[in-house]
Amino acid sequence: xxxxxxxxxxxxxxxxxFAAVTDEAYVFWSAQAVLITEPLEACLGARMDLATMRxxxxxxxxAGIGTGTESQMAAEGASxxxxxxxxxIDLERFDxxxxxxxxxxxxxxxxxxxxxxxxxxxxxxxxxxxxxxIGGCGFGGPFPYGRW
Length: 148
Fold this sequence. Notes:
This protein has seven helices and four strands. By secondary structure, the protein is mainly alpha-helical. The protein is flat, with a radius of gyration of 17 Å.
């Protein structure tokens, strides 16, 4: 049976920064999150909904949807900044090698929260008749943006 993500109302109750998300945006981005989490449902177990909602929040943030600082910066095209100077204000983003190791998931706080949950389900190399498959999931696995 196919997994159904939490409703928009439940998502907003847990992540109120996304209260203004449209129905269409929520349906689309939560479906994208399910493509990542559903193959790991047996492993995620009771944390399946949380993982799916965090992945959805990650995608919404990257799309510039939400009231959080990360979402607003993404909406303005400044989410990937290293250093910004405006008048007397000079901002520099802290470089976290841990976040960089997460690939695309490391670009938002929601992605950084869901990444360990997902990675725990894929830990270790798979061994086949031809040897270990580096990355644990063959051709990039279910994480098209993450680096293992």
